[in-house]
Amino acid sequence: MIEVNAPVTMSDVARAAGVSTATVSRVVNGHYGVSARTVAQVRSAIEQLGYESSLVATSLRRSRTNVLGLVAHSFQSYTAEVLKGVMKALSRSGFDLIIYANSDLYGSYSEGWEQRHLTRLSGTLTDGCIVVTPWGDFRTRTPVVAIDPVRGSTAPSVISDNLTGATTAVEHLLGLGHRRIGFIAGRDSLASAWSREEGYRAALTAAGVPVDPTLIGRGDFNPESATPLARVLLQRPDPPSAIFAASDGMALKVLEVARELGFSVPGDLSVVGFDNIPESALTQPGLTTVDQSMYQLGYEAARMLKSLVTGEWDEPSQIVLPTSLVVRDSTAPPKSAARP
Amino acid sequence: MIEVNAPVTMSDVARAAGVSTATVSRVVNGHYGVSARTVAQVRSAIEQLGYESSLVATSLRRSRTNVLGLVAHSFQSYTAEVLKGVMKALSRSGFDLIIYANSDLYGSYSEGWEQRHLTRLSGTLTDGCIVVTPWGDFRTRTPVVAIDPVRGSTAPSVISDNLTGATTAVEHLLGLGHRRIGFIAGRDSLASAWSREEGYRAALTAAGVPVDPTLIGRGDFNPESATPLARVLLQRPDPPSAIFAASDGMALKVLEVARELGFSVPGDLSVVGFDNIPESALTQPGLTTVDQSMYQLGYEAARMLKSLVTGEWDEPSQIVLPTSLVVRDSTAPPKSAARP
DNA sequence: ACTGCAATCGTTATCGGTTACGTTTCCAGG
DNA sequence: CCTGGAAACGTAACCGATAACGATTGCAGT
After folding, report:
1. CA distance A265 to A6
2. Is B283 on the interface with A (CB under 8 A)?
3. For residue B272, what pLDDT is reported?
4. Before A137, cis peptide (omega within 30)?
5. Which residues form the HTH lacI-type domain (chains A, B) (predicted)?
6. What was the pLDDT predicted at A1?
7. Tell me, what's the pLDDT at A111?
8. Are both B261 and B304 inside the same structural domain?
9. pTM score of the predicted model
């Protein structure tokens, strides 16, 4: 049954136990200076009334709350994976997690809200935050760890080795014989997008293949942003024989467009993604991609934040996680392996 | 740059603007009774100092916070889909969302924590909560909407038409000629699990096929719970020709086990799931399943909670959403269509 | 100039806890 | 019996904001 009114406060408990709220507080927090008899009385009163301390009131008065926050700008597969890693790291650690999501997911991308919510939370509700958004930096009074930070950020962060990953991916395509390789970039404010493009350029240059700017589409990591770009690339009179997309979400959209335009994959077109989200293993054909463990990203970020909060962090403030190429069915040698 | 210390409070603003905190509060909340000149002063002070009101302090004092909560016991695809629907419904509604996740995701399933967190949040931080957990009911002072509630719950809730959905699924298998149909049940505390099993039994009975208890495995909606059950069913000397799993997560595990044991799907074994999570469309073969829009579930729950909070709800307290069968590639007639 | 009513703004109690500090109780030691 | 000091507990200030209430001011009407 739901009882709509059950505002049991600490003073209710105090009254029931015949003591002051101060004593109840001491019992609840296991502080020193309460006789065993009184503790028992208070405990039983708490039990009877079903009292739980208010998170809000506690947060307001205390500096430490043992609650960490996660602020994300959207909830794609990427974020969900990160979330699992974070929860794993926090498991049995004594920290709880609050995820703050704004209600404008599909609305206007108001750049300011992360900062707004961060300041509203920090210093009160949460002891620290993990942010995973395409914007930054953030001013807070509590530690912040960024996952995939903006370019040039010096804040504590966790990031994949995007440069190596992207280089490997393009080298894989080059190794298959591809020379005209399209690229769909991510949101350029992010360090990851930048590094992945760097890797693309570096691999081409190292192989003596000139970088053709008209083969580069400017996406923003949002899957939908890739659709028109893929259409443009594939409807050219001279379409590329392979496309490297800076994220799996975008790569999957490339597959969609390819199917729609009658390209067979990997026959007519090879596609490589980046991220290795769960869907990439399941799609048909399986997507060749660069694995960055988003789970691990979340796990490390949470571990880092935890120690930052407790003040026992001594490792460098930027963690770089390795990536690895996962070859599936979306890549093959081009039909005409040789071309100027 | 991150400034670690920026505790700008309302009284800082008040001091800077040369007014009282009450006036600042009035300006912030757009209340009546402040001259245009004062508003301008306060606004500029807020701007200069970068002030944001503390969510916690506001929550403590106010009855309404315009923040809704979501309490979930795990974060599988199911929850992620629900989440998207919730966010969509809350988009541009003036409500923010806080997701409370305990850190024991993989640890002991301590049944009490949802109640604990619910009381810690309700009446202070949040105006109401959506709960999606296999336990209930909950005592709170603010409205609660349950998604897929426990059996016998009378609380406001949103649920799919599980009975019809399950019946249709089994009728589909019967129509293909299957007679030995296995079933992997969900957590029996949930109304949905109950209804789906009911549908399974009803369809069989209506077709004159006796229900064989040894063909029923007792899972709990957790994908992992299905693996050993599927193994048992398929390693029998007389395995069923089809398996209906009460959730897609479990059905996908059945596919995994089938592959492992050398069953071809749908050649040797037909598999049907329930939920239609995104993965089901991508897996190979595509999973035939009963579509319940988890997105819609979340959307409706949020819509309901919103009106409950504002006190303008007049529809029934239980919403039932339709389901529909999605036939993909995991079902086909059995090899020997006729059997006693 | 005087009254009266709005408009404007400050004072203060309050939300539910926490904690510094003060007070009382109790017992050991002199 | 008195004193000292630690243990046990209450008092009250405080965290940051809100809102009821009171006080002040300005201006119109007479």
Report:
1. 61
2. yes
3. 98
4. yes
5. 8-62
6. 37
7. 62
8. no
9. 0.82
User: Could you list the residue range(s) of the whole structural domain that residue B208 is in?
Assistant: 162-292
pLDDT tens column, A164-222: 999 999 999 999 999 999 999 999 889 999 999 999 999 999 999 999 999 999 999 98
Amino acid type, B301: A
At B78, list the tokens.
Answer: 């199911």
Q: Which residues of B touch A1 (CB under 8 A)?
A: 137, 139, 154
Give the distance, in angstroms, between residue A33 CA and nucleotide C30 C1': 28
Rounded to whole angstroms, the Cα distance separating A123 from A21 reads 25
- Sheet containing A216-218: order of strands: A216-218, A181-185, A242-245, A270-275, A288-291, A324-326
Interface check for B155 against chain A (CB to CB < 8 A): the answer is yes
Q: Is A4 exposed, middle or buried (0-12, 13-18, 19+ CB in 10 A)?
A: exposed
User: What are B76-116's pLDDT values in tens digits?
Assistant: 778 888 888 898 888 778 888 888 876 554 434 556 677 77
The per-type count for chain A, helices as H runs and strands as E runs, is: 12, 12
Are B215 and B278 within one domain?
yes
Q: How is residue B243 written in tokens?
A: 């398996």
pLDDT of res. B28: 92
Omega within 30 of 0 (cis) for the link into B285? yes
Query: A100, A70 in Cβ contact below 8 A?
Result: yes
Q: Which parts of chain A sit beneath pLDDT 50?
A: 1-4, 105-108, 337-340
pLDDT (tens digit, 9 = 90+) per residue, A127-175? 899 998 877 677 777 889 999 998 888 889 999 999 999 999 999 999 9
Output b/e per residue, A51-71; b: 16+ Cβ within 10 A: bbbbbbbbbbeeeebbbbbbb
Q: Which nucleotides of C are covered by protein (CB under 7 A)?
A: 7-12, 14-20
Same domain, A177 and A146: no
B137 chain-A contacts, CB cut-off 8 A? 1-2
Tell me, yes or no, whether B96 lies in a domain. yes
Return the biggest CA–CA distance within chain B.
90
Tokens 């028992």 belong to: A40
The tokens describing A68, both together, are 């960490």
**CA of A30, C1' of C27: distance in angstroms:** 25
Task: State residue A102's pLDDT score.
Answer: 64
Q: Report yes or no on A336 lying in a domain.
A: no
Distances (CA, A) of B38 to A16, B41, B43, B66, B217: 48, 5, 8, 27, 70
- Residue A48 maps to which CATH number? 1.10.260.40
CA-closest candidate to residue A3, choices B309, B117, B144, B98: B144
Same domain, A151 and A167: no
B107 touches chain A (CB under 8 A): yes
B 31-70 near A (Cβ less than 8 A): 50, 52-57, 59-60
Reduce the DSSP state of residue B122 to 3 states and report it: strand
Dist CA A303 CA B7 (whole Å):
26
Beta strands in chain B (DSSP E): 67-72, 96-101, 128-132, 144-147, 157-160, 181-185, 216-218, 242-245, 270-275, 288-291, 318-321, 324-326
Q: How many domains does chain B have?
A: 3
Q: For chain B, which residues score pLDDT lower than 70? A: 1-6, 102-112, 122-123, 136, 336-340
Q: Give CA–CA dist B56/B124, Å, rounded.
A: 8
